[in-house]
Amino acid sequence: MRDETIPTHCPYCALQCGMNLRGVRQPDAAGTAVEVVERPDFPVNRGALCGKGRTSPSLLSSRVRLTEPLIRSHATGRLEPATWEEALRTIADRLRRTREVHGADAVGVFGGGGLTNEKAYTLGKFARVVLGTSQIDYNGRFCMSSAAAAHGKAFGLDRGLPFPLEDIPRTGCVILVGSNLAETMPPALRYLTELKENGGKLIVVDPRRTKTAEQADLHLAPRPGTDLALALGLLHEVVAQGRTDEEFIASRTTGWADARAAAMAHWPELVERITGVGVPELREAVRLFCDAPSAMVLTARGPEQQSKGTDTVSAWINLCLATGRAGRPLSGYGCLTGQGNGQGGREHGQKADQLPGYRKLDDPAARAHVAEVWGVDPESLPGPGRSAYELLDALGGDVKSLLLMGSNPVVSAPRAAHIEGRLRSLDFLAVADVVLSETAALADVVLPVTQWAEESGTTTNLEGRVLLRRKAVDAPDGVRSDLEVLGALAGLLGHEKGFPADPEEVFEELRRASAGGLADYSGITYRRIAEEDGVFWPCPEKEGDRHPGTPRLFLDRFATPDGLARFVPVNHRPAAEEPDAEYPVLLTTGRVVAQYQSGAQTRRVDELNAAAPGPFVELHPQMAERLGVREGEPLAVVSRRGRATGPARITTGIRPDTVFMPFHWPGEGRVNTVTNPALDPTSRMPEFKVCAVRLEPADRGAVA
Ligand code: SF4
Predict the structure, then answer these.
(1) H helices present in 276-308, as ranges
(2) Which of 61, 168, 317, 665 is 20 to 30 A from 502 via CA?
């Protein structure tokens, strides 16, 4: 590592906390270790980090990281060390052979929301230009697609937050729906604390009384899968109390009559029966929200990861529009993105239906623009492919070979045992990762790739702020970057040019590809990002002048053709799987503070593993008493798809009809074995957040 302190960003979640990395020479001459130093000048986290960010360098020098390619031996069936040339040639040969025998769409590509913008862009280009396949999607589909779809419908543009986080403490009221910031991104909790210190009100909607919900002025705990009815009930009450903003509705929106009619069919007593949230609480929420001079609704995975996630988010947006809480300073709807590059990863082409700049793959003008940047015939670009779960479900069927980067679907996909089986049934699987994840362990070829501090690249945080992670340390021998891998494979597959390994060179091309698109990065450069602590998109290039970037969207007009926001009429419908006699309990899932997503990285950090060594089954004392379950007793949570086990954790902080499990672990504790892959019809988001289960003490028969 160089001598100076290097400013960069955390490798984990979408907050993308700023941190400084510094080299520390080891006393035993064992080289230089990297340590995290506070970076108080970065506005998003002002120096604060959670345990994941603080310990993030430990994986750089971890004994468990991969430092040489592996190829599965025909003789032993085991992954054996190989040279880079052997590994890359094997991948290129197998992908080429799959194409020749079964056609281009028999090759699949699966990416991740943690990949930098440069990697996401290059992966999409590699799939469409080198492989010619339409079969590419990524794990961000599991995390952001419902909010993105609803954003697009209502506002004509999808950016997680239409305002910077710094606006939150200055608004009058926040409704936080299905987000547990205290566990998922603790440094962001201070925005809510400051909101309250300033006299603002906080309403938290969550079936659990989380650490975040404990901060709330009002906690609404709906039955999992009923957030849509709750939002409709609130809108009904807004209308009934005469709290709509008629001037805003008339001048800034369209479609109110149909949305109003849908809401009026959801009167408070009906909503109470569906959600379990009492009418007085509904009315109190409306009072707090409407009395405030400005207000925001922020959603996260709770309402989004449902088979009606898009409609659910639309209902919350309708509430904002009807009350004039959008397109105005300190007001609006926003989605709290989850993965490190959950925002940028959804903008530059690794989604099944998308080209860089948030362009649509089925738009002829978009195809022509991007094809020109790529130097190919627009006709050569394949059309839209399958969504993430549908792609994984097709493995071993018409998709025979898969190249996977930055994802661990064996743990993170719904109905995970089935998906693990699909991965095993492939003719060929190649995985690039930093550790031997559960998915990499199934591969025919594994490529060891660089980590965040060993390469430069941009990410776009939940605010739409494009950030630069700088290279701070050299990668160990034997490791290459994802961009080097894609460039080398492109070369072996006949594309010598167009796949540079230098991230800044890729970004320069991304700027041109995104120019004129919704997510326009053309005015952003590495230099600007470094000088300005990030630049908010859209930021088009302006001749002879600097576009300032766009921290706040929609203040003058929405991004629709006529500049008006769209109300989308929606109606409540039940979850895809409701409790019945055989599976009488609701399951919901989520995260814990010391682990991140599938845990591929954080489970390998001793401090984090000690803090959160395994899954648990959280249940209410009433349910525990009814079932005769004691604290710590091993429980199995069983659905129609399989079972997951963990010790009972009994708490009054959960609804009596619901159990909760975190999803970071493989094996017996893998809750995604149990979750339901029912898809939202618009976003194709699986229903991670609700399904029907029964509980079985591990050594007894079914008890609920
Ligand atoms: Fe990293 Fe997110 Fe923790 Fe910040 S909150 S340190 S970005 S994991």
Answers:
(1) 279-291, 301-304
(2) 61
- CA atoms of 352 and 385, how far apart (whole Å): 5
Q: Nearest C-alpha to atom 5 of ligand 1 is from which residue?
A: 185
| Pocket of ligand 1 contains residue 44 by CB under 6 Å | no
Residue 607 in tokens: 């401090």
Q: What is the pLDDT of residues 292-342, one digit of tens each?
A: 999 999 999 999 999 999 999 999 999 999 999 999 999 999 999 888 898
Q: What is the dihedral of CA 378, 524, 325, 144, to 10 degrees?
A: 50
Which residue of 16, 39, 49 sits with most ligand 1 atoms within 8 Å of its CB, as the best mutation to test the pocket? 49
- The domain made up of 5-60 has a fold known as N-terminal domain of TfIIb (2.20.25)
Q: Is 52 in the pocket of ligand 1 (CB under 6 A)?
A: yes
The two tokens of residue 229 are 């009815």
pTM score above 0.85: yes
> Does the C-beta of 514 come closer than 6 Å to ligand 1?
no
Give the distance (Å) from ligand 1 centre to CA of residue 104: 39
3-state secondary structure of 231: helix
Would you list the DSSP string of 423-488? HHT-SEEEEEESB--TTGGG-SEEEEB--GGGS-EEEE-TTSEEEEEPP-SPPPTT-B-HHHHHHH
- Tell me the pLDDT tens digit for each residue of 11-64: 999 999 999 999 866 655 556 678 999 999 999 999 999 999 999 999 999 999
Specify burial of residue 464 (Cβ count, 10 A radius: 0-12, 13-18, 19+): buried
How many whole angstroms from 304 Cα to the centroid of ligand 1? 21
Beta-carbon contacts of 455 under 8 Å, excluding residues fewer than 6 positions away, are 469, 471, 475, 481, 483, 503
Nearest to 411 by CA among 693, 677, 667, 679: 667
Topology given in CATH for the domain delimited by 70-141+343-536: Rossmann fold (3.40.50)
Distance between CA atoms of residues 69 and 539, nearest Å: 40
> What does residue 332 show for φ and ψ, rounded to 5 degrees?
150, 175
Q: What pLDDT is stored for residue 143 in this prediction? A: 86
Measured distance CA(210)–CA(108) in Å, rounded:
39
Show the tokens assigned to 149.
């779809």
Ligand 1 centroid, distance to 46 Cα (angstroms): 12
Single-letter residue type at 22: R
The highest-level CATH class for domain 143-335 is alpha beta
CATH topology classification for 585-697: Barwin-like endoglucanases (2.40.40)
Pairing of the two strands 401-405 and 428-433: parallel
Residue-range domain boundaries for the chain: 5-60, 70-141+343-536, 143-335, 585-697
Residue 395 beta carbon below 6 angstroms from any ligand 1 atom:
no
CA distances from 537 to 143, 157, 331, 465, 523 (A): 21, 11, 19, 7, 9
Convert the pLDDT of each residue in 129-149 to its tens digit.
Answer: 999 999 999 999 998 899 999
Pocket test for ligand 1, best of 13, 46, 451, 459 (most atoms within 8 A of CB): 13
